[in-house]
Structure formats: structure tokens, C-alpha cells
């Protein structure tokens, strides 16, 4: 199953079922924790893993209509016929295919009260493993991009070719820096003044390279906006995820809009001035079944989706003391990023 390669790198025991309520797969950590071979689990009714009681079975009976993750405290789990049972706090999350995720956290290891915070922490271990494996092919891409750039210079390549090669090189450098941060976590770099429209132009170049002429990309900028204080790489990553989601949702038109908002409250904080950045598309829209959990990791409306893009975009918004929200109906979806902007007199103090 496509989930297994990534989930096998997690230390959190995770199993998942299909719409029939039977185990469709489990990661290596789940099989080890339960003390059973991973090949013995698929096809087993998921409810059969509960050694005593019917709490799991009762939730699974309601799973087709479930829209939110739930936690079951101290659930005894065991492979049928084996003893003793292992106790865990279990997080159950509905899947887009009608099945569900089951995360088992030994009762002395459960990291927090909010199920939405569980999987992001567990994914960090998986991402570090993936980062390590990606370094070599990324180094090859970097070398190939440099060689192509030298050949283009030698034969006097046109401006369009040079721009694409420069974009390729800058994206390889950005990915290399991201992998370095995953492998060797360091304090976030200080935020600095940036032109948000320069960030958006970089995202548009990526979108044009990805979608070609299949999507019409439109700018609706407020040229009077002052500089924003932030991290241009992280904002590029977040906004590219939003635009790419729009493209993959079948949008024919994508609009990037910037406006100034005065007297804005973001969370508990009031801000005199904020940037309102909207990504508007005419794609299929957000499925109603995902509306309440769209920003959770591993939640995706596409069979091939990882469900990480929106979770990352929301994290970037929080890093900038901002917020990310959306409204959607078929043919009209708007993701709105609100980011506080310091007033000139505040920047001077």
C-alpha cells in the first residue's frame, strides 16, 4: 500500500483500515509493539484488536459518518489469541476512502491532549529519514543544473532559458537548505524585511513551470503594500503548496491577490495593519467530508495526496504570527493568509 513506505519510518505505532473495517496495513512500529508479524494483520477486523470491551467497535460502527479524530483512553490492544494485552491511548481518524487511521500511544508516552498535535511530531522522524535519502539525488540535480547553466552560457542561450535554469538552481538550493534543517535542526533564522510580491512572483514561476498553459495564473496585487517582516523561503514553500493544491484540484484559473487590512485581530492579538493574501481558484473545491480536518497531516482529498501541504502552510502562518483559513464551494475556493505587518513607526522603535 502506498502509505507503508513513509509510515514504516515512524516510531509511532500506526495501523489503518479500509471501508470494510478490516486492517488494510500497519507500519513496522505497530507490528513490533503488538508483538506480531506485519503480514498477519491485513484482513483482520480492526475491532478484533481490542482485547476487552467494545469501545473500538462502537466507534468503527459510526466511522462512515465521522468527521473528526477521537481519542480512546487506555484501550487494551492485542492480536486475537495472544496475551497479554498492551494498553494505549488510541487516536482514531477517518480516512478519505471510508476507512480510518489508528495511532497507538502507550499510556506513559501520549504526548498531549490534542490529537491534531500527535502526528506532526511523529512525522518529524519520518521526514528526517526521507531527508537523508534525498540528499544524494538532490546533489545530482544540483550538479546537472550547474552543468546546464554553463552550457547555456557557452552557447549564448536566450533569456527565457537562463531564467528557467536560474529557477531550477534556486529551487535546488532551497530544497537542500530544507533538508539540512530537517537533518540538523537549528533555531529558525531571524525574520527580515521582504517584498511579498517578489515571493509571489517566484511561486508563479514555479506554477508556470509545473502547469504550463493548462492554468491561467493571474496577479491582483496592491502595489502600495510595505515590506513584510518574515522568512521568504518558508513563505515561498507555503504559498507554493496552496497554488499547487489549486492546480491539482482542476483549476483553470488561479488568482493571487494582496490587500492591506487595518484593525485586524488574529487569534488573541490585535494588529493595526496586516497583509491579506488570497489564493483564489475555480477548481473542484474542498470535499465537505474534509472540512473539519483539512489542516491535519495525512488528510487529503486526492488518492495520491500526502496531506502534508496544508499542514505545513498553516505552520508557516503561525511562525509569522498569522493565520490561514479558507472558504470553498465547487468552482470557487479561497485560501486566505493573514500576516501582521509592523507600522513604520513600530519598525523604527
UniProtKB/TrEMBL annotation:
Keyword Phosphoprotein: yes
Enzyme class at the top of the EC tree: transferase
Reaction(s) the record says it catalyses: ATP + protein L-histidine = ADP + protein N-phospho-L-histidine
Coiled coil: none
EC number: 2.7.13.3
Record-level Gene Ontology MF annotations: ATP binding; phosphorelay sensor kinase activity
Residue span(s) of domain Histidine kinase: 129-343
Record Gene3D superfamilies: 1.10.287.130, Histidine kinase-like ATPase, C-terminal domain, PAS domain
Bilayer-crossing regions: none
Keywords, sorted A to Z: ATP-binding, Kinase, Nucleotide-binding, Phosphoprotein, Transferase, Two-component regulatory system
Name of the molecule in the record: histidine kinase
Amino acid at each position: 500500500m502506498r502509505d507503508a513506505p513513509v509510515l514504516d519510518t515512524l516510531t509511532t505505532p500506526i495501523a489503518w483500515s479500509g471501508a470494510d473495517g478490516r486492517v488494510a496495513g500497519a507500519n513496522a512500529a505497530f507490528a513490533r509493539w503488538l508483538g506480531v508479524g506485519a503480514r498477519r494483520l491485513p484482513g483482520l477486523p480492526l475491532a478484533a484488536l481490542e482485547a476487552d470491551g467494545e469501545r473500538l467497535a462502537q466507534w468503527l460502527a459510526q466511522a462512515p459518518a465521522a468527521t473528526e479524530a477521537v481519542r480512546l483512553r487506555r484501550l487494551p490492544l492485542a492480536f486475537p489469541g495472544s496475551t497479554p494485552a498492551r494498553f494505549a491511548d488510541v487516536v482514531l481518524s477517518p480516512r478519505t476512502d471510508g476507512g480510518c487511521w489508528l495511532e497507538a500511544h502507550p499510556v506513559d508516552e501520549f504526548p498531549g491532549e490534542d490529537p491534531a498535535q500527535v502526528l506532526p511530531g511523529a512525522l518529524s522522524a519520518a521526514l528526517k529519514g526521507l531527508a537523508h535519502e534525498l540528499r544524494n539525488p538532490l546533489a545530482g540535480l544540483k550538479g546537472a543544473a550547474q552543468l546546464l547553466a554553463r552550457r547555456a552560457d557557452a552557447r549564448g542561450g536566450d533569456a527565457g532559458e537562463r531564467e528557467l535554469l536560474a529557477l531550477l538552481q534556486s529551487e535546488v538550493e532551497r530544497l537542500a537548505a530544507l533538508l539540512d534543517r530537517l537533518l540538523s535542526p537549528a533555531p529558525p533564522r531571524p525574520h527580515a524585511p521582504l517584498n511579498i510580491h517578489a515571493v509571489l512572483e517566484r511561486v508563479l514561476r514555479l506554477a508556470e513551470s509545473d502547469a504550463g498553459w493548462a492554468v491561467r495564473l493571474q496577479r491582483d496585487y496592491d502595489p502600495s503594500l510595505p515590506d513584510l517582516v518574515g522568512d521568504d523561503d518558508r513563505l515561498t514553500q507555503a504559498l507554493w503548496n496552496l497554488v499547487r493544491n489549486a492546480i491539482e484540484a482542476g483549476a483553470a484559473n488561479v488568482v493571487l491577490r494582496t490587500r492591506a487590512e487595518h484593525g485586524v485581530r488574529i487569534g488573541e492579538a490585535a494588529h493595526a495593519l496586516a497583509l491579506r493574501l488570497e489564493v483564489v481558484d475555480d477548481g473542484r473545491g474542498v470535499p465537505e467530508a474534509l472540512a473539519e480536518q483539512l489542516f491535519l497531516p495525512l488528510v487529503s482529498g486526492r488518492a495520491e495526496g500526502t496531506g502534508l501541504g496544508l499542514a505545513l502552510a498553516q505552520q508557516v502562518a503561525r511562525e509569522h504570527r498569522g493565520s490561514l483559513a479558507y472558504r470553498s464551494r465547487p468552482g470557487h475556493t479561497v485560501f486566505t493568509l493573514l500576516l501582521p505587518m509592523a507600522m513604520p513607526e513600530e519598525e523604527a522603535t
